[in-house]
């Protein structure tokens, strides 16, 4: 037999152990956020990469929960094992910081595309994450051996699980709102490792203060058989599948409403974990005294069909229409409070029920004589296996295949199936009890009763599924501004892809807008057309003879299409992570982008642009970026010093790079960070303005592999010689070289005093996304533009050519707006 419950003298330490699990969960979530950020830089930010990363992370925890009880003897003191595991997690987490760069070099040297590339991404993730996640998954089964497998003991295991989740909530908010916003990944890792070390020391101390009475012959003890165990393991796996699949789906929908910043994702994750923690606490209390935990587990799954319907209805038909205008407050912290309330309103019911399912599943499988470590490990592994399938399947396949509406309907059906599977043995046992009491129940009546129950559950699930509404097209288009912009235009297209939700709208004026994740990404508005054409035409005209171009992001295709009209261009590579955009969205802007997606010179690469640059030996004459706002989670990786260095390495001699920088929905610190980081790599870089009625709107940064002066006469001759180029520029207001280059707004050396204290955005901190996430509701473009122009001087050495043309350009630049 396995050891009895801990003696009464040692039970007083159970609350302290609960606190240790809080610290363990806090450290684990800090690591998870840091590792995802760190490894995304190596294997990319696409849904495929994130799916592989998430599967590897959770797979390691699953293996750890299964393996521990099979390789660690029951004779070992559980708290000593737990302490060693925590110490090992901290040591391995610090090792990951040093190991990733080495793995990255090996990975990028041998990576390919298609299935081989996908397998290599998985291997890279496994090498980095499996060692520490194996230990993470083993912590709960390790401590479980200190607890007796009775209702009271199992309830403590549920409390430990809930305490771990509560710590995860704290770690999520600590990492997202402080450690990574103020410090960097190394600091966050060291803080988490210090927490692991503290937990390990206290755990080791408790091992000395408490005794452990193992079985005389642990090798011969076998877990007691629990009848119909499959009817618990399968439902708890389905519960994990539904929970993580719902998290993916609901994060997509909530990020439309709240804005896809790093803070939004931290708030959503924290809200999800809070629900799980509350549910785990309630489930643990329930498991302590309930007579039929299996019935309670099945009831949770049945109630989940209604809870998922509630969330689906809230996210599509209720919350988007709350009278909320995020632009009213200049403090993002007020909006964060409201965002948290909206998250709780929508997702708490379902997450509480999923949280309660774990301790109830433990209680349903508990019997005396079991190894508590194997019991917890088996239930945890089943739940995690389901979670892996749900997270990876929804990220990569489900949403892109059937959309969020059908995905939520499927989750309702799976929850109903989990309930039926849990209730099935109870129905059979009920018939057996009736027979033992001498009651007659023929086979026909027994079968009819079972069919009736199945039909009732199925009908209820079907009716609830029918109530799940489609995501509003206006939410996909206008996101957090839906209440103030609803009805502005006609929705031409709405689609939910693997990586993003997209929409195309048309205003009464005929202007078309392309929306991604609740914001306008590109449009045929004059100011947007001017920007998109500048990103392509500026480098193409300043390069002596451009033959190849790489465009980061397809968007409306206008930037990539700008290269179509240049006769010397032989190859245009477009990197886009969302397949819907080139295939469906770009044709809506066929006139503006010169039907670029069908041009034979164009090669579409469906991958993260940074990952493509890391893994391709190809070099380009021009590298440019279609507008991607830096406050969008993941976009800051395309604004780091290391990324710009990577871009420079992939430029041919005389190569040029252009980078978009928005002044709207931003603040002074964000713009300074973007400029200072770019000029660290391209110190002679220049700024070109795309203002709107003299007010700051956005700018284009231009850098050169080999800094050379701009010959005004040659650029004018090329504009006149290439008629399609001239027409393309005239359509956006540039009739001559003076008009185009008169947008000059400064250069790196002149702005050094202004940028002296700017934050440099680096891979190790991705500071920009945290700065930018605080400014998405601000309108400071005019202020930023005025300050920047204060340092502008006419660059005598930058422009060469005829004196007359040079003087005309000087006049245009000096007369352009330099103040109010």
Strand-residue fraction? Answer: 5-15%
Largest sheet composition: 8 strands, mixed
What is the CATH class name of the largest domain? Answer: Alpha Beta
Please give the domain count: 4
Calculate the terminal CA-CA distance, rounded to whole Å. Answer: 84 Å
Describe this structure in words.
The chain has 820 residues and is α/β, with parallel strands linked by helices. The chain has 4 domains: 178 residues; 244 residues, Growth Hormone, Chain: A (Up-down Bundle), CATH 1.20.1250; 35 residues, no CATH class; 292 residues, Vaccinia Virus protein VP39 (Rossmann fold, 3-Layer(aba) Sandwich). Helices cover 62% and strands 10% of the residues. It is built from 28 helices and 14 strands. The strands form 3 sheets. An 8-stranded mixed sheet has the order 7-6-5-8-9-11-10-13, with helices on both faces. Strands 1-2-3-4 form a 4-stranded antiparallel sheet. A two-stranded parallel ribbon has the order 12-14. It is elongated, with a radius of gyration of 30 Å.
Give structural attributes:
820 residues; alpha/beta; Growth Hormone, Chain: A; eight-stranded mixed β-sheet; four-stranded antiparallel β-sheet; 14 strands; disordered N terminus
Please give a quick description of this structure.
The chain is α/β, with parallel strands linked by helices. The chain has 28 helices and 14 strands. The chain has four domains: 1-147 and 184-214; 228-471, Growth Hormone, Chain: A; 473-479 and 489-516, no CATH class; 524-815, Vaccinia Virus protein VP39 (Rossmann fold), CATH 3.40.50.150.
């Amino acid at each position: 037999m396995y050891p009895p419950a801990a003696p009464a003298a040692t039970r007083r330490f159970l609350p302290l152990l609960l606190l240790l699990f809080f610290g363990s969960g806090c450290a684990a979530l800090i690591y998870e956020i840091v590792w995802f950020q760190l490894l995304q830089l190596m294997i990319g930010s696409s849904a495929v990469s994130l799916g592989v990363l998430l599967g590897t992370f959770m797979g390691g925890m699953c293996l750890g929960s299964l393996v521990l009880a099979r390789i660690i003897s029951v004779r070992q003191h559980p708290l000593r094992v737990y302490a060693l595991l925590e110490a090992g997690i901290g040591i391995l987490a610090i090792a990951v910081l040093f190991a990733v760069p080495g793995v990255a070099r090996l990975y990028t040297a041998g990576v390919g595309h298609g299935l081989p590339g996908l397998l290599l991404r998985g291997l890279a993730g496994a090498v980095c994450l499996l060692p520490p996640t194996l230990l993470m998954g083993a912590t709960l089964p390790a401590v479980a051996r200190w607890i007796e497998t009775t209702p009271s003991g199992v309830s403590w295991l549920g409390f430990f699980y809930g305490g771990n989740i509560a710590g995860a909530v704290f770690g999520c908010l600590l990492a997202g709102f402080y450690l990574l916003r103020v410090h960097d990944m190394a600091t966050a890792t060291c803080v988490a490792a210090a927490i692991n070390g503290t937990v390990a020391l206290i755990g080791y101390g408790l091992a000395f203060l408490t005794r452990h009475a193992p079985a005389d012959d642990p090798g011969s003890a076998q877990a007691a058989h629990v009848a119909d165990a499959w009817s618990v393991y399968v439902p708890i796996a389905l519960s994990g599948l539904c929970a993580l699949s719902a998290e993916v789906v609901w994060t997509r929908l909530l990020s439309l409403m709240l804005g896809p910043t790093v803070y939004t994702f931290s708030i959503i994750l924290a809200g999800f974990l809070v629900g799980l923690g509350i549910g785990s606490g309630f489930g643990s209390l329930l498991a302590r005294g309930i007579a039929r935990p299996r019935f309670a587990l099945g009831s949770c799954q049945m109630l989940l069909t209604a809870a998922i319907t509630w969330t689906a209805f809230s996210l599509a038909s209720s919350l988007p229409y709350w009278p909320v205008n995020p632009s009213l407050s200049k403090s993002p912290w007020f909006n964060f409070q409201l965002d948290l309330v909206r998250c709780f309103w929508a997702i708490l019911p379902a997450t509480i029920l999923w949280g309660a399912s774990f301790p109830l599943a433990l209680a349903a499988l508990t019997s005396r004589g079991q190894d508590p470590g194997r019991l917890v490990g088996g239930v945890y592994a089943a739940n995690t296996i389901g979670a892996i399938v749900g997270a990876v399947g929804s990220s990569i396949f489900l949403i892109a295949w059937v959309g969020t509406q059908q995905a939520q309907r499927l989750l309702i059906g799976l929850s109903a199936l989990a309930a039926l599977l849990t209730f099935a043995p109870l129905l059979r046992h009920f018939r057996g009890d009736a027979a033992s009491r001498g009651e007659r129940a023929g086979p026909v009546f027994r079968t009819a009763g079972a069919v009736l129950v199945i039909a009732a559950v199925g009908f209820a699930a079907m009716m609830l599924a029918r109530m799940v509404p489609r995501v509003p097209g206006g939410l996909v288009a206008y996101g957090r501004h839906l209440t103030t912009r609803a009805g502005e235009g006609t929705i031409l297209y709405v689609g939910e892809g693997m990586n993003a939700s997209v929409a195309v709208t048309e205003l009464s004026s005929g202007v078309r807008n392309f929306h991604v994740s609740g914001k306008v990404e590109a449009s045929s508005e004059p100011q947007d057309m001017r920007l998109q054409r500048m990103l392509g035409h500026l480098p193409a005209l300043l390069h002596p003879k451009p033959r190849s171009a790489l465009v980061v992001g397809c968007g409306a295709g206008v930037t990539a299409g700008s290269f179509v009209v240049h006769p010397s261009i032989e190859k245009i590579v477009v990197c886009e992570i969302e397949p819907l955009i080139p295939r469906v969205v770009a044709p809506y802007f066929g006139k503006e982008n010169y039907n670029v997606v069908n041009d034979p010179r164009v090669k579409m690469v469906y991958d993260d642009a940074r990952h493509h640059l890391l893994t391709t030996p190809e070099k380009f004459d021009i590298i440019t970026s279609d507008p991607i706002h830096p406050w969008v989670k993941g976009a800051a990786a395309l604004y780091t010093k290391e990324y710009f260095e990577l871009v420079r390495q992939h430029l041919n001699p005389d190569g040029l790079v252009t980078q978009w920088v928005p002044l709207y929905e931003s603040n002074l610190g964000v713009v300074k960070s973007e400029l200072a980081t770019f000029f660290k790599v391209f110190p002679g870089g220049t700024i070109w303005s795309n203002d709107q009625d003299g007010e700051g709107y956005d700018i284009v940064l231009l850098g050169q592999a080999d800094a050379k002066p701009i010959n005004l006469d040659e650029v004018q001759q090329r504009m006149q010689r290439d008629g399609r180029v001239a027409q393309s520029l005239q359509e956006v207001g540039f009739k001559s070289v003076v008009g185009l280059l008169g947008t000059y707004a400064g250069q790196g050396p002149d702005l050094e005093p202004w940028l002296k204290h700017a934050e440099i955005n680096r891979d190790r901190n991705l500071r920009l996304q945290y700065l930018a996430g605080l400014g998405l509701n601000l309108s400071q473009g005019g202020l930023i533009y005025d300050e920047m122009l204060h340092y502008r001087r006419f660059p005598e050495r930058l422009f060469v050519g005829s004196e007359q043309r040079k003087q005309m350009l000087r006049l245009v630049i000096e007369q352009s707006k330099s103040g109010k």
